[in-house]
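Worked example 2:
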Amino acid sequence: MDDFVTCCTVQYIYSQTVTGVAMATEKTTTLTFRIEPNIKEALCTAADRDHRSIANMVAVMIREHCERVGIPIPDNQALSASGLANPKSGK
């Protein structure tokens, strides 16, 4: 069954809005997961239709899901202050 699963690596770049212009910061993290090929194809199609990178599309989907189910996403400054911005465990 593993022959039919594709491995994806997504790198999310945290961005901030400064005077109306989105600017990427240096803080990134890598997320690697296995996904079925048809789901990856749908993700690529969705990203392409929205003129987004795959990483950005995943980030948008995660943010929308979290907002819908009431999971807060702290901003990067709050994470830095709490020491959670760069976890050493790799998870």
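The radius of gyration is 15 Å. The helical segments are 37-49, 54-69, 76-82.
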